[in-house]
From TrEMBL:
It comes from the Bacteria. Keywords: Monooxygenase, Oxidoreductase. The keyword Transmembrane does not apply. Gene3D superfamilies: 3.30.70.100. Residues 2-93 form the ABM domain. SUPFAM superfamilies: Dimeric alpha+beta barrel (SSF54909). GO terms for molecular function: monooxygenase activity. InterPro entries: ABM_dom, AI-2_Isomerase_LsrG, Dimeric_a/b-barrel. This is Antibiotic biosynthesis monooxygenase.
């Protein structure tokens, strides 16, 4: 399993547009083969920060995600929405269990 986690700081005046784009992106991504989770959430202390969490079945599913039309559109819009580049980390998970 592949996990992607991190944050992105939005332009405050673009927050509403960013929410709309994030919702469309998440909806389209949830339909992809191999997508186990794909979420954006607002920081409780700073509404201009979104937390990003993705879980993918394998590297092939993640690579396929980067080739989708909705990913291309999201990447095209991203520079107008964010104040700084997203800060993301990629994790390789060998096992998981309920906690």
């Amino acid at each position: 399993m592949i996990l992607i986690a991190g944050t992105v700081r939005l332009h405050p005046q673009q927050r509403e547009a960013a929410v709309a784009h994030a919702l469309r992106m998440a909806q389209a991504t949830h339909a992809e083969a191999g997508c186990l989770a794909y979420t954006f959430s607002a920081d409780l202390a700073d509404p201009d920060v979104f937390h990003i969490f993705e879980a993918w079945g394998d590297e092939a599913a993640l690579r396929a995600h980067f080739q989708t039309p909705h990913m291309a559109e999201f990447n095209r819009q991203l520079p107008t929405l964010v104040a700084a580049a997203p800060q993301l980390q990629k994790y390789q998970v060998s096992s998981s269990a309920p906690f």
